[in-house]
Write a structure and sequence with these properties.
Order of helices and strands: HHEEHH
Helix content: 40-55%
Distance between the termini: 68 Å
Number of domains: 2
Strand order of the largest sheet: 1-2
């Protein structure tokens, strides 16, 4: 369009572009309407068959409340992780760092009791738990308090 030598040619090309753009948008709206109508038809069929799982899945899609499951995350050096396994390793590293912020890299005494936790050495790749976290089951009084 911008390489046209004359104004008349440029105006003609703009009109063609505008018409094609309208046509593309019209087709996109029609396709979207057909997609939603098809989903509604599938939901009606699922209802008539009593398939609630499929009905709820379609309802979730129609309400546009979809959750992106595999969103890329960044490593500490700033690179993106797209692979699910690498992301899980990064989350494990992140949460072990947060939960073990008060634990040193030395081996704690292995005491076993009601409220005692066994803590392994953090450097050997095993998960070390934070001794400040209460892992006992809540009492009835604590439950009633909340």
């Amino acid at each position: 369009m911008n390489v046209s030598k004359t104004r008349a040619k440029k105006i003609e090309l703009q009109k063609k572009y505008t018409e094609k753009n309208r046509e593309v948008k019209r087709n996109a709206r029609r396709d979207q309407r057909n997609y939603i109508d098809n989903l509604a038809h599938q939901a009606e069929e699922a209802t008539s068959k009593g398939n609630l799982r499929e009905l709820f899945a379609i309802t979730k899609i129609l309400s546009k409340r979809q959750i992106q499951r595999n969103r890329p995350i960044r490593v500490t050096d700033g690179t993106l992780l797209i692979n699910t396994e690498e992301q899980m390793q990064r989350w494990q590293e992140h949460f072990s760092k947060i939960l073990n912020s008060g634990v040193d890299n030395q081996i704690a005494e292995n005491r076993i009791g009601d409220d005692q936790i066994i803590v392994e050495e953090e450097g050997n790749g095993e998960y070390a738990e934070n001794p400040r976290i209460n892992i006992k089951a809540p009492t009835v009084a604590e439950i009633k308090r909340h």
